Amino acid sequence: MSTPIKTPDDLVLAFKKSGEFDRLRKELLAQFQQSSAMESLMARVEDIARRKLDSDERLAQKAPETVHRELLQELDRYPILERALSDVPAFSDPAFNGAVRQHARKILRENSERSDGASS
Q1: Which of 30, 81, 88, 113 counts the highest number of beta carbons within 10 A?
Q2: Cα 34 from chain centroid (whole Å)
Q3: pTM recorded for the entire structure
Q4: Domains of the chain: which residue ranges?
Q5: Integer Cα distance of 88 and 110 in angstroms
Q6: What is the C-alpha separation between 99 and 103, in angstroms, rounded?
Q7: Which of 102, 99, 97, 115 shows the shortest CA–CA distance to 6?
Q8: How far apart are CA 81 and CA 109, in angstroms?
Q9: What gap in Å lies between CA 71 and CA 40, rounded to an integer?
């Protein structure tokens, strides 16, 4: 027996438990990896990393973990991931958004039916 859905967080949890979240995550990742947005993201990351390495000569003497950490901090200064994700077509695709809504409605309907059946 599953927990009744009373809050948006309950719906999110039920959505994840249904397996739909993982399916969508995998689908979005595959779409992103095959898109030009992925190429743009990688080129931007490389450009930022190269500029940081070229401008900071002390990095050559630091431990690899320190260099990695500093490069990640440099990348965090730029909204490159947000920009790349905004280019993923699925997020603006009415069919994709409709499928998410449809699955959420199905979960809510099934939950409601279980709740109604339990109170009978």
Answers
A1: 88
A2: 16
A3: 0.65
A4: 1-34+88-120, 36-84
A5: 31
A6: 6
A7: 115
A8: 36
A9: 18
